[in-house]
Write a structure and sequence with these properties.
Number of helices: 1
Radius of gyration: 25 Å
Low-confidence stretches: 10-29
Shape: elongated
Order of helices and strands: HEEEEEEEEE
Largest sheet: 6 strands, antiparallel
Mean pLDDT: 75
């Protein structure tokens, strides 16, 4: 064994501690706050969701709109039993092709993984492309 390796092998453990930090900016994290815990149950709360409201009612359609959420990279609307992603610039959805009634909620998206809590829900009804109702 070389002289350097013998010295390193006998070196205190502190010399072998390597700190690994992310490169390219801050790492994404959902929460950074700390708090003391008591009891046996911990409940984590996600970011607040948008507030959903009824927008314009038009002949054959209905709009829902929502408040912008700071830092959102897009929004995920849920209606008709499926999720529908829209851009962060979109704050209104117009329904014309929905036949019947559907409950609508929206969540803010943060990147490709994180979403906020769901908004309040609204019920949208469009009948035969003639009457739109939101409530």
């Amino acid at each position: 064994m070389s002289r350097l390796l013998r010295r390193l092998a006998c070196a205190p453990l502190a010399l072998w501690l390597v700190l690994v930090l992310p490169t390219g900016g801050a790492a994404e994290a959902a929460w950074a706050d700390s708090a003391a815990l008591t009891g046996t149950t911990v409940t984590a709360a996600g970011p607040a969701g948008p507030v959903l409201s009824c927008g314009a009612l038009t002949l054959g359609g209905a709009d829902v709109s929502w408040t912008a959420v700071p830092g959102a990279t897009g929004y995920r609307l849920t209606y008709g039993g499926a999720d529908h992603d829209v851009s962060a610039a979109t704050l209104t959805q117009h329904f014309t092709s929905l036949l019947g009634t559907s409950t609508v909620t929206v969540r803010a998206r943060f990147g490709t993984t994180w979403v906020s809590n769901a908004s309040n829900s609204r019920t949208v009804t469009v009948v035969a492309f003639l009457i739109g109702v939101c409530g």
